[in-house]
Specification:
There is one protein chain. The protein is an alpha+beta fold and 497 residues long. The protein folds into 3 domains: 191 residues, Hypothetical protein af1432; 143 residues, 2-Layer Sandwich (Beta Polymerase, domain 2); 104 residues, Beta-grasp domain (Ubiquitin-like (UB roll)). It is 55% helix and 11% strand. The chain contains 20 helices and 10 strands. Strand 6 and strand 7 form a beta hairpin. The longest helix is centred in the middle third of the chain and has 35 residues. The chain is globular, with a radius of gyration of 26 Å. The termini are far apart. 39% of the residues are buried. The structure holds manganese (II) ion. Manganese (II) ion (MN) binds next to loops.
């Protein structure tokens, strides 16, 4: 997909890709940032032997392909300057302004995260989410940086290879997934996979190679027939193409299916992209009228999106030759959201995110996606992202390192109910960052929260109703209390005679 790699990216490539999308853009600050970074990194080389600036360029180039805003691209060029050179944060700010300097500072801070095994996992995640809460663009830069580091991983000593590959799969990829950036997530995983599990990687590649070839032929033939069927039924505008399953995702699926390749139907799938939601269902109807669907394999992720916001219709049909092919149907907007997630705002701003942005998304990603719809421009979008989403939401962690998203002002009781109703009802005491804390303490982003259950507790206290912040906790407490009241009354009457 990206023909230009670490070895060959030039300033002109970078300018070219920006100009493709913004023909009239003033690129003088990009040029200045390039010269600045080149001087700052002068004499430094990458493990591969190329000048260090190649890494800065590749990072910025990647951000430009995602159509990120200018401060982000410029910060991409400068992202390793304070870390690796004598230039200070203040000097950067003087030259490039506060916004760029802050972005670079955010990346530098994140750079200090090193994977140190599962016991540090929570800490890593916490830092990531805190950085993201400050400015989500920091994460985009970190992703672009990481992609280039993975592309050049072969030149690193084995110990570093292992660490970077592991971090990518265990920390970066899940975060990309939570942000709805499916393509990026798969790219991180696929680049890291051969380094982290070389034997498994070789096994999957070898096992799947023949079958992929065979399936490609089936899909190519089927695409022609699908196009005919859609044209016959006057579906005016659509595009269809084959899409190959990503290798790490295939590997994970194989582990769930007893390593049996014959149980995997989406090795190569057909993807149909249409203008509007109603077209998706129309196309599904045509396909099912023409080919027999496989029972139990029709999934409506439009009506019920995946937790990360993913939307599409999936079905699996039997071809005329009796082969099995999976077909995915989505709108262009859904397609861009699936590939780029929240970054799609920049990517798709001319495509009109319009009214098709999914309404029924779960949790905080619903809010993330909604912001895209409402924003008038990038600046406003970013402000909204920071204020609406992150400034009134906090991220706290369970002892296992799971990230729990709560409204600001939430207490340990809200947290307990969020984990499990029974845990909420039997909340005994709370530990925040390993120190005992009152149950009405207001939690902060990054807190590690542990609830100790009190088995002898019969249920929630009435005054908890004045402490909790989330509707979920409030309803569950009220529910419990009114049930208890009914029981008491029943009890009363049953004893009366
Ligand atoms: Mn870097």
């Amino acid at each position: 997909m990206h023909a230009i790699d670490d070895m060959t990216t030039t300033l002109n490539d970078l300018k070219h890709i920006i100009q493709q999308k913004h023909p009239t853009a003033d690129l003088s600050l990009v040029e200045l940032a390039y010269e600045f970074a080149e001087k700052a990194h002068a004499g430094q080389t990458r493990f591969s032997g190329v000048p260090y600036i190649q890494h800065s360029l590749a990072t910025a180039y990647r951000l430009a392909t995602m159509d990120m805003d200018f401060p982000t691209i410029i910060a991409g060029l400068l992202h390793d300057v304070p870390e690796d050179t004598a230039i200070t944060q203040q000097e950067l700010e003087k030259e490039f302004g506060e916004e760029v300097a802050e972005l670079v500072a955010g990346v530098t801070k994140l750079g200090k995260i090193k994977y140190r095994g599962i016991e540090r996992y929570a800490e890593n995640l916490r830092k990531m989410f805190v950085a993201m809460a400050q400015d989500v663009r920091v994460i985009f830069i970190k992703f672009a940086d990481r992609i280039n580091n993975l592309h050049t991983l072969e030149f690193l000593p084995p110990v570093k290879q292992q660490r970077i590959a592991q971090e990518s799969i265990e920390i970066y990829a899940p975060i990309a997934n939570r942000l709805g950036m499916g393509e990026l997530r798969s790219e991180l995983e696929d680049l890291a996979f051969p380094f982290l599990y070389p034997d498994e990687y070789t096994w999957v590649k070898q096992a799947a190679a023949g079958k992929i070839e065979a399936q490609k032929k089936i899909v190519d033939k089927m695409i022609v027939e699908v196009n005919d069927a859609l044209a016959e039924n006057t579906v005016a505008s659509f595009s269809s193409h084959g899409r190959m399953k990503h290798v790490f995702s295939l590997y994970k699926k194989l582990l769930r299916k007893d390593r049996d390749l014959s149980k995997i139907y989406d090795l190569v799938a057909i993807r149909i992209i249409v203008p509007e939601v109603k077209d998706c269902y129309h196309v599904l109807g045509i396909l099912h009228g023409r080919w027999r669907p496989m029972p139990g394999r029709i999934k409506d992720y439009i009506a019920q999106p995946k937790p990360n916001g993913y939307q599409s219709l999936h079905t699996t049909v039997f071809t005329d030759d009796g082969h099995i092919v999976e077909i995915q149907i989505r709108t262009q907007v859904m397609h861009e959201l699936a590939e780029y997630g929240i970054a799609a705002h920049w990517y798709a701003k001319e495509g009109g995110m319009g009214t098709q942005v999914p309404r029924e998304q779960l949790g905080w990603l619903e809010q993330l996606m909604k912001l895209q719809k409402d924003a008038i421009n990038d600046q406003e979008y970013l402000e909204n992202l920071k204020i609406t989403l992150f400034h009134d939401r906090i991220f706290v962690l369970t002892p296992k390192g799971d990230v729990i998203n709560l409204p600001e002002g939430a207490t340990p009781i809200d947290f307990a109910y969020h984990i499990h109703t029974e845990l909420g009802h039997h909340t005994g005491s709370a530990y925040i960052n390993e120190k005992i804390a009152a149950l009405d303490t207001k939690l902060k982003s990054g807190d590690l929260v542990e609830i100790k259950e009190d088995k002898s507790r019969k249920g929630p206290n009435e005054d908890w109703l004045t402490i909790v912040q989330t509707r979920m906790a409030k309803e569950k407490i009220q529910d419990f209390l009114s049930r208890q009241r009914r029981m008491r009354i029943l009890d009363l009457f049953s004893r009366k005679p």
